Fold this protein.
Amino acid sequence: MLREAGIQSHKALMIVTLLWAPNAIPISVLPAQVDSMPRQASASDSASPSSGKCAVAELKAEWLRVNGQVVYIEPLMAESNSLGDVFLAGRFNLVGVVDSSNHWKPTLRHDAVVGAILPKSGSPRLVGSPFPGRRLGGFQSLPVGDSSWLVVFGERIRGADGTYADSARSLWAGHYDGWRWSGLTRLPTPPGRAYALSDASRLVTRGDTVWWSIRKAAPPGVVVMEGVQGKWTFTRIDEFLHSPMLALAPAIQMYVVGPDQTLPADGNSLWTWTRQPQWRLLRKEIPSQREEVQRPSLMVLGGQAVSSWVSPAEGNGAGGFQLRAMIQESPLAALRLFTVDSAMSGLPPFLPLAMTNEQPLWISDHARGSNGGQIQFSTYDATSGGLHVLGRFSHDYITPFVAVSRGGGDFLVSGAHYEVDRYAVSLLRTFRVSCTGGSN
């Protein structure tokens, strides 16, 4: 059942709005210079790309350093703007120095920094917290113009034992111009609800409207936020949505995972909701009887509807999950269902999709048994109707990584790497995909 802004009715509608605050909140910005780590780029495990049209190569690998400090940004969000600058953000971050004895010492509280800006050309710099001293999480961002981002996040709930859960009751939006925060606004939400920060969609936009969806508890369901020129409203969807994984698309659709309550038993089926003009169930995409669905992603690329999700890979000793995908090349074309990576070693926070040579590109964490993981680049060629693995690169990240396109065929991968005193640092690896017969 839909509840528009807390009114339990399909017909009743109350619009709740909140204007952007005009006052900018300055933060201290630390100037930085890149201090590259001498590290030999890993060779691809594939002797040559199987596509014949595209090839991938690693350009460099380096620690994230800011003003001589070693930095770890939890790899939960990476978003690039039109210049190829990347906004990297996470819940728990570390900034410190390595002394002459090779011991790591902190220089900033981890709640003072929420991320880093990684310019494609220039020196990285830290992103200070919009609310120093508070524990924030669930960052999602959307580039605005050449150098700014619209950012949403939540204020994490502190438990009785002093630890902070990955959930929030207060959700916020604001602008970050690459140097400072402004326009911080508390989003209107149903009262008394807790929100799962790890179960939220990316921000998507069409015209002057921005959408963001996040899972809520008690009763289980979803809240869809809609912002129009800084004015935000919300829609509650209190349906069968149990532990959903969400994704919005520019086509104003939403993927959500949950059981089919018309069946005696059902698991994680994949459903599509659409807004016409209210949110309503459109169809079941993947029944759980065929496969269990987790972390869905939906994007429209080059006129193609490209869906991706993670499913358990039962009986697979190398990896516990597989990356699956579905492509519809036109509204009347048949759906093509295939496996992108049959053995994934971990669940990434997002399933990155980018275009290369007018084709979708996936970057996944491929498992290789007890020898660690591999960064796998895969693309789908609609002409030949086949998936091509462009290359695999060994890695020793200790957590799932994030990957983002920087434009021009360049891709950045960031993950946690143990280097100093058993403390994690962010290891940044840059790759380039080059294709013939088209643009990257």
